[in-house]
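Morning run. Coffee first, then this:
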Amino acid sequence: MNKTAQKPSFPTFDPLQSQIDGVWFPGNDPASLLVSGRHLLKDISTLLALRDRCNDDYERKLLLKHVMVELVSMMAAMDGLQQAVMTAEVYEPPVPPLYRGISIQEKTKARHLWTAYSDAKKAVGDDLRVIRGKVCAHDDVSNWPQWIELWGKVDPSLIAGLLEAIPPAFWHASELNICEWSVSNGDGRKRVLGGPIDPETMTTGDDEDVAEVPAS
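And here it is:
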């Protein structure tokens, strides 16, 4: 592998674009979880924006129900990221990790953010999973009194804590050196990147972490 000095200019993989070549493609589980989580957050934000513009009470509640479906999926992604962050190698600057790792300061901040997320999930996670199965997916219609009770729980107050706790922990994880990315150059070679992604643009580009693998 030969280090390159050229800053990567490829976009990060977007599953909605159905493009794999010529983009930074996730190379490990944390990277894939970041790609998935980004789209889940976009879906949640879009649904909430649609709900804000809606005046009909039933339609507002219906959109909120779909937000809860996305939140259950987001919790699964968050749980995977939490595992990756909290089990990452910890190093003390200025000595860098051998390959992947987070600093003591990053670990301290992560612990605070992920504790807030865990507390929010613990408070409502079970309710959200039941609502998704019995109300959203209509998996069980044998207990209508329970269905009515669950429909009554479809309220913004149920998810307010999660909506507040998820973004800070997610975007902090996106800044950490725990992900791997690769891109095909189109000539049989593949470039490998190990640095974090920018939390605002979702693009990668740490020059020092770029390596080029020749075609075999």
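The radius of gyration is 20 Å. Good start to the day.
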